[in-house]
Amino acid sequence: MSAKKHISFSELKDWKLCPFYHNLAWIKKLSSFEGNEYTAFGTAIHDTCEKKLLEKGFDEKEHFLTSFKKTLQILENKSVVIDTSLIEKMVEQGVGLLPEIEPAVKEYFQEFEVVSTEEQLYEPIEGADGLCFKGFIDAVIKTPDGKYHIIDWKTCSWGWDARKRQDPMVTYQLTLYKKFFCEKHNLDPKDVETYFALLKRTAKKDKVEVFRVTSGPRKTENAFKLLMKAVYNIKNKKVIKNRLSCTRCVFRGTEHCP
User: Fold this and answer.
1) 161 lies in a domain?
2) Total domain count, the chain
3) Contact 227, 184 (CB under 8 A)
4) Dist CA 156 CA 22 (whole Å)
5) CATH number for the domain harbouring residue 132
């Protein structure tokens, strides 16, 4: 792994799904997925959320529409086929969702100050031979009690069920973000809390839901052990195929994974 400088949570998640897929997508860089209408929507909403937290008098609707159009144009330039009828629905859904984001955050946290948005993490992983953990934290706010709150925006259709909310490979993202954020700023983990903010595209009500994800010492240890396991196996080129994950794999049945 000498040529590899960092690992992200997205990469860790793909490795956990299937080490063989990870090798094709991240090491050999064979993945052909360029994005779609849903990723474009998510990018535009995320970008608007970040700008809205930082700027007063910000025209969120105009920014969202401009960002969405720009992201879709990038996909079209890459010959990705776009469903125009779906885009029309997404524009309406996004415009309806935006006004509810800031009030929902203010209702949940009451008084706060914005510390950062899209904060980059690029922190050394202890015991990983110079490898860094790379990530981008959507938003960090601070409340009057001195606590920091890491928020990760998640666009979805109607919401998450209980199973997804408790899935380790969903919540470990925030666990690792918290760990390396604390190391970056020399903070006590007890002073940092983490949250997902669900931005529900198709929901009729409660379109924005903020909920806390707890990450105590044991969970942090488990997440870090998984990260180190991935680092070790990637470094030693252990690329065992997880056949339970073959069903939706883009490489299934191709020359790369017959």
Assistant:
1) yes
2) 1
3) no
4) 25
5) 3.90.320.10
